[in-house]
Amino acid sequence: MPTARPEPGTFVPYFTNYISRVPEGTEPLAMLRQQPAELRQLIGGLSEEQALTRYAPGKWTIKEMLLHIVDTERIFSYRALRIARGDQQPLPGFDENAYADASGANERTLSDLLAEYEAVRQATVALFQSFPPAVLDRPGTASNNPLTVRALLFVAPGHEAHHLYILRERYLPLLG
Asked: Where do the DinB-like domain residues begin and end (predicted)?
């Protein structure tokens, strides 16, 4: 039986975009397992120069976008862990642009970034697999909004799907 989608009110409305990118009937854990191959197929063969492509001035490079996916997944996983363990402390938000600016992504190799991405993804899958069904609807607070473990289970692959779409639509056409 597919994992039920999170109910409105169990996540900030901004996350609707990400949750909607997990197709109906798709298991979010299966999507998390499948995405690394898709990402590697899309960018694994890029040169270091190509990985520094920005689709517009002021936008992230492909390397920065990849490390943003990694950073954000770590934060989503941390939030899921805290909420799943019953921690009721409100969790802070984060400034994705400040993180990208401080990341040093452009000074790293693409292969190094992909290896880190894959390690984080393995940890994310292991974490979500470890949760018993009873904790999926456990509520918490992040960025002053309600959030459940179930919502994060859908947001994590949906966030990456959002960036894979941007990669296909805005970055890769510039590379020929």
From this structure: 32-165
